[in-house]
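Thread: Newbie trying to understand structure tokens

Hi all, I'm a second-year student working on a class project, and my supervisor (Dr. K.) asked me to get a predicted structure for one chain before our next meeting. I've only ever worked with sequences, so writing a 3D structure as a token string is new to me. If someone could post the tokens and maybe explain what I'm looking at, I'd be very grateful. Here's the chain:
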Amino acid sequence: MDCYDCLARDTERRAVAVCRRCGAGLCGDHVRLSPETVHQVAGTGTASSEKRARRLTCGVCHEAEHSPNQ
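---
Reply by user tm_fold:
Sure, no problem. This is what the structure looks like when written as tokens:
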């Protein structure tokens, strides 16, 4: 699979990750890594894991998720 963002710029690079939100293939230069809290159902409530998971997204989805207009 090729990096979607590189192809949009007429360049070919192998994808090393997939955007969790939109599914675009991403090379190492275009993937955005952010921490994610893991929530699990525990009895009648929700428990959060002490460890953070990785969330890999493209630049477009990363900006949409972290925009101040939320």
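A couple of things are worth pointing out once you decode it. The mean pLDDT is 91. Residues 4-65 form one domain. Feel free to ask follow-ups in this thread.
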